[in-house]
Design goal:
About 35% of the residues lie in helices and about 20% in strands. By secondary structure, it is an alpha/beta fold. Helix 4 packs across helix 5 and helix 8 crosses helix 9. The chain is globular and about 65 Å long. The structure holds NADPH dihydro-nicotinamide-adenine-dinucleotide phosphate.
Amino acid sequence: VLGSDFLSRLTGSFSTGAASNPTVWMIEAAYRFHKLDWRYINCEVNPENLKFAVHGAKAMGWIGFNCSMPHKIKVIDFLDDLSDSARIIGAVNTVVISGSRLLGENTDGKGFLKSLDAVRPVKGAKALIFGAGGAARAVAIEIALAGCKELHVVNRDPGRGERLAELVSSCTSTKTCFSPWLGRFQIPDDIDIVINCTSIGLPPRVDVDFQVDTSTLLPRMTVADVIANPANTKFLQSARDRGCTVLDGRGMLVNQACIAFKLWTGHEPNSEVFKAALAEIAL
Ligand code: NDP
């Protein structure tokens, strides 16, 4: 039976290199599963066109959109308000358009935290993060806000790493320190959770040597990676070989998409639908 409403609700994503972003596949599957006449349009947008894309989405009555690399910081210039964590992190990956107002949220860290929670509690834990870019900032802030006791930041660029450690100590009660990443890093033996938040493992950096002394990865440690494609990074494989509990980046990807779905539609997502969609495309 034909309905009388032919106007779908629109959402989507703006990024450069959009073709490799699988979020569209998961969210469209969820719209179908929940019988919502909604669309998610994956758009290739280069930096000079971001402003026009955002204004266009607003003009066309979009409900919201994701922003991926390289727009997560620049998009803030075009928004009306930010959630508390997006303000602290200084980056936005999800925008909700409500009437004429654009609200920026950051779900990177929240998505990671949810998948970590399923494996081990972060409250009271001592964590070590490799990296200090956008993903690292989001993960560091969220795990600190969730009660991580101590956070050790390790990064190649010392200025960036120190800024992240200072940000976490100034905004949360987590005890934080920074170490420059020089040579094969030795993980202190009292660390509970080790997280790769660098882009090592993501093509074309699949074979970059992850400079860590793997003998310092202990079986009692939980080792996580934010890289979702390919999910079994060399770093995670070394942790698995050492008997650690491992967590790959797919859970973070699924959870983020679920959070965006809920923010836009107001419906409680069935995360199994997102996972099944991701499995279909065999990341
Ligand atoms: P950025 O470019 O902001 O940061 C990259 C980080 O990686 C920096 O800390 C950089 O160090 C470090 N790095 C890169 N190459 C090397 C190397 N050869 N040796 C040591 N350090 C290196 O990227 P993002 O933080 O935005 O993203 C990082 C990764 O997170 C991406 O690969 C992305 O796919 C993934 N991600 C996954 C998500 C998911 O849902 N699973 C969500 C968001 C991101 P330096 O500061 O020294 O340059």
